[in-house]
Amino acid sequence: MTDWSNHFSQHARRAIPSAIRSLSEFPRATDSIPFGPGEPDASLFPVALMREALDAILTDETSARSALQYGPSEGDPMLRRLVAEHMNKRGVACAPDNILLTNGAQQALNLASEVFVDPDDTVLVQVPTYPGALQVFLAHGARLADVTKADAATRPALIYAMANFQNPTGISLSVEQRRELVTLAHRLDTVLVEDDPYEVLRFDGDALPSLLALDTETRSIEEAHTLYLGTFSKSVAPGLRVGWAAGPRVLIEKMGLLKQTEDLQPNSLAQAGLVRLLEHGLEPFAARVQAAYRIRRDIMAEALRQHFGNRGAWRVPQGGFFFWLTLPEHIDTAKLLEHAAKLGVTYVPGAAFTPDRSGANTLRLSFSAAAPERIAEGVRRLARAFDEYDQNG
Ligand SMILES: Cc1ncc(COP(=O)(O)O)c(C=O)c1O
Predict the structure, then answer these.
(1) Which terms are listed as keywords in the entry (predicted)?
(2) Bridge pairing between strands 191-195 and 226-231
(3) Is 307 helix (H, G, I), strand (E, B) or coil?
(4) How far is the CA of 106 from the centre of ligand 1 (A)?
(5) Local structure of residue 370 (DSSP, 8 states)
(6) Element of type H or E holding 146
(7) Domain ranges of the chain
(8) C-alpha to C-alpha distances, 319 to 39, 165, 324, nearest whole angstrom
């Protein structure tokens, strides 16, 4: 058999599997409770509404033909307008041509890296951070560094940050911290990629301005250094694979050009479905998921308090999908996972989220995919696994 690995491009050689997707398969109990995947609960997808929307589109001959035809690379003009209006409501003065529709926020992240990152360039990230972003930057040959330790003398190719309910820590940045990041991007003369998939999932507290909203307070979006990434994956459904980038036109056009080489355009039918679904705005969908996930967040917060007590440290997130637990130094959460899986609960060890695989005593718990009535039991099992591991190693 041909050994293709000798023929792979540098880019292909640099690609690594997702630390989450490739977590080894431990023997686990059949009724395992999943705190691992950061995916939405499929029972919350607006199935009936989407069926109606697609049915209406496909029943009308003209809209059916258009929804099944090729479309513009930058995305459906109506959906670009809807997204621009959504951004306007969130304090960003922008027009439809400041929006690029993409195959999920993940593609926008990859396109942004293609635009800015050459091999050996530095990319500044929050530590810990989203493994899907680490995968993208490493595939482009970037050197990763902690944004809090930014070296004023070196211009990074890109800064990557989440301001709301960060994946994995669940923590949001204060307005002051947000302003500091925007100032840093201007001072270092680099692009600030703001990944904001969990924005719609705020359970308490007032919404804070996005990095792009702050960046455009005193300058036009064309002068901004922030490129905002949004998605319909958490508010509607990830299988649609529709997300967007919002930023200066020159960047949107360049990313659009690169997008043509990747997949020509976003999916026409998914975009048409979204346009119809969102006739009355995103708010009803946001309200529905907020209510459902708030209940889960509350149950997990109470269960952690009850079953974990002072055995670890965590903060209750104001939104999003995640709790981040820091356990005593001597605990290795990759090993603890073997015990936990046998007892019927899974999570993601914290080292999956750091560029140097540090943080062995941390872990991410997602409350999005487990049924609400199973969450307390999952945390109880995790506490039991912790006790067994702590006593016996
Ligand atoms: C921080 C972050 N960015 C991007 C994505 C990918 O989003 P999309 O489904 O829009 O590609 C995710 C998915 O969970 C995420 O957590």
Answers:
(1) Aminotransferase, Transferase
(2) parallel
(3) helix
(4) 6
(5) S
(6) strand 143-146
(7) 9-46+284-392, 48-281
(8) 14, 6, 13
| CATH of 48-281 given 3.30.70.1130, 3.30.70.100, 3.40.640.10, 3.40.50.300 | 3.40.640.10
Q: Whose CA is nearest to atom 15 of ligand 1?
A: 197
The pLDDT profile of the chain, 393 residues, written as one tens digit per residue, is: 888 888 998 889 888 877 676 565 566 677 899 999 889 999 999 999 999 999 999 999 999 999 999 999 999 999 999 999 999 999 999 999 999 999 999 999 999 999 999 999 999 999 999 999 999 999 999 999 999 998 877 899 999 999 999 999 999 999 999 999 999 999 999 999 999 999 999 999 999 999 999 999 999 999 999 999 999 999 999 999 999 999 999 999 999 999 999 999 999 999 999 999 998 889 999 999 999 999 999 999 999 999 998 899 999 999 999 999 999 999 999 999 999 999 999 999 999 999 999 999 999 999 999 999 999 999 999 999 999 988 876
Q: Which CATH architecture has domain 9-46+284-392?
A: Alpha-Beta Complex (3.90)
Q: What residue has token string 């396109």? A: 111
φ and ψ at 175, to 5 degrees?
A: -60, -40
Distance from C-alpha of 35 to C-alpha of 374, rounded to nearest angstrom: 10
Would you say the CB of residue 230 lies under 6 angstroms from ligand 1? no
Place of tokens 């506490």: 383
* Lookup: tokens for 25: 């398969």
Q: Is 177 exposed, middle or buried (0-12, 13-18, 19+ CB in 10 A)?
A: middle
Q: Specify whether the CB–CB gap between 108 and 229 falls below 8 A.
A: yes
Distance CA 206, CA 175 (A): 12
Q: Is 233 in the pocket of ligand 1 (CB under 6 A)?
A: yes
